[in-house]
Amino acid sequence: MEYKRVLLKLSGESLMGKGKYGHDLETIKRICEDIKEVHDMGVEICLVVGGGNIYRGAFAAESGMERASGDYMGMLATVMNALALQNCLDGIGVQSRVLSAIPMTTVCEPYIRRRAMRHLEKGRVVIFAAGTGNPFFTTDTAGALRAVEMGCDAILKGTQVDGVYSADPKKDKTATRYEKLTYKTVINNDLAVMDAAAISLARENKTPILVFSIHKNGSITKTLKGEGNFTISKEKL
Q1: With the C-alpha atoms ordered 215, 172, 50, 74, is the resulting torsion angle positive or negative?
Q2: Which run of H or of E encompasses 165?
Q3: From CA 95, how far away is CA 39, in angstroms rounded?
Q4: Torsion sign, CA atoms 67, 70, 76, 80
Q5: Which tens digit of pLDDT belongs to each residue from 13-32?
Q6: What is the pLDDT of residue 193?
Q7: What pLDDT is attached to residue 42?
Q8: Mean model confidence pLDDT for the chain
Q9: Do the strands 5-10 and 96-100 form a parallel or antiparallel pair, or are they unpaired?
Q10: How far apart are CA 154 and CA 8, in angstroms?
Q11: Domain 5-234 falls in which CATH fold?
């Protein structure tokens, strides 16, 4: 495998399945089985999960709530998602740990970089919750930050579509899917890979970003092997 340690960024929406809110246990189990497949191949894997299936701070701010308060509430939603993933991973025989950027020791461990590294070295799946612990930063930025801190070889972003398109393929049937992109192209064309802060972090640390569909069985393994449909973003093509 080209990548020995990776960070998987999951959106909260990916845990909903066909529902409109909350968790779909069958979907979560399928994703966790894909994670197990990668883990069993000897790849060290850590996760950052969003909270959009439960709460979105940015949307709350548009309705009049203070943005910082809304973001903190969104961070708590990511902890709930992280615990759901941990419960499922443990149920299929994969040791995992949830580390939260907001300390809540009753339900999970606080984020300490050296502790997270040690868990990975022991073969555990590490799930990072509560984003960066700061408002005004997305979980995309948290994903890029944790990937750099953990020394990951790549960032895998599981999305609703099989790569990066020139426009939303659900709305524009003429949208073009990209196979490869440079960070410069992503930023200049404002493409929906990750937000600008996350792209800048990845670019500065030369960490490639692979965008693929999380809804296909075995998609994580196929992406790591360079198979299937995905878009890779890096410094040079």
Answers
A1: negative
A2: strand 164-165
A3: 10
A4: negative
A5: 999 988 888 999 999 999 99
A6: 83
A7: 95
A8: 92
A9: unpaired
A10: 9
A11: Carbamate kinase (3.40.1160)
In the predicted model, is pLDDT for residue 148 greater than 90?
A: yes
Instruction: Please answer whether residues 125 and 45 qualify as being in contact, where contact means their C-beta atoms are separated by less than 8 angstroms.
Output: yes
Specify the pairing of strand 154-159 against strand 5-10.
parallel
pTM of the complete model: 0.94
Domain ranges of the chain: 5-234
Structure tokens at 207: 């960490």
Question: First and final CA of the chain: distance in angstroms?
Answer: 20
What pLDDT does 191 receive?
87
For residue 184 the two structure tokens come to 């410069």
Q: Are 52 and 64 in contact (CB under 8 A)?
A: no
Residues 6+ apart with CB under 8 A from 103: 110
Q: Would the pLDDT of 195 be above 80?
A: yes
Q: State the Cα–Cα distance between residues 185 and 187, nearest whole angstrom.
A: 5
